[in-house]
Amino acid sequence: MHQTFHRIAGFGLALAFLVIVLGAWVRLSDAGLGCPDWPGCYGQMTWPQAAHELDSANQAFPERPVEVHKAWKEMLHRYIAGGLVLLVLALNWVAWRREKGAPDMRGKAALLLALILFQAALGMWTVTLKLKPVIVMLHLLGGMTTLALLVWAWQSSRSPSGYSPGRPVQRLRQWILVGLLVLVAQIALGGWTSANYAALVCPDLPTCMGQWLPETDFAEGFVLWREIGVDYEGGLLDLPSRTAIHLTHRIGAIVTLITLLTVAFRLIGVAALQRLGVLLAGAVSLQFIIGLLNIVLRLPLPNAVAHNGMAAVILSIMVTLLYRTSSNRR
Length: 330
What we know:
The chain is mostly helical. The chain contains eleven helices and no strands. The chain is about 70% helix and about 0% strand. The two termini are about 15 Å apart.
């Protein structure tokens, strides 16, 4: 049973990564409202293509005429996310089908199911609340959390229980926890930057609009909950507010780089975690370079999507490290 659970968790892990990358592609292609309703698209389960379908859709949603190149991207993302829901259901079936199934497997499967259903609700609210920034950010964090839980489930279902790492390994756990918290905060900041269309506010490096201290409005830039019914596509904040968001993300990138490289160099000094330390150092350095290129190259789509994908990779490494340094692997 553990072997079946492990295989399904592995498939789910790969699919969760794909959903995260596709979600970034949809958002950065400005296709987040490619379908103005949910779960269908202009009232159907695919997207309007034929002339009569386009006419009907445009009459039903006059405020948002059909853009086919956006609609199919949004629906592709929904289909694959739906496949991930089915895989999580399969994990639960495997974990609960026997009366004497492992309690730890059941707990992980149930938690994943609850999370994936909440994530589906966030996906719906992303559309129905018209890209409300806090919902977009939470949707990103929900996807990353789903990925993290699948990494843990995959790791725990392949390793023998009761394993206890040595003291040199356990001593690194606090460093890994700090690194993980910093990373999650930076991912949230990245989601907030993207949701408020602030990624291109500062087109130069290391200054912003030629200044070290441009005009900023942090109070307005970090208001999490705003009015209902507003279409947030393209962003609503003024330049000082977006500048505050962008600069905070830049500072966070430097803090995250220093923190995770510190963790990586400490890991390299411990034989059991040396490879993961090297992998972490390489991934974090590459991510920082991709972030710089986003500014220098004016946010090309492949580069911006890769930035999201690398964040998911680094998160997976950190969760793996957290698992490897756990005193009671379950």
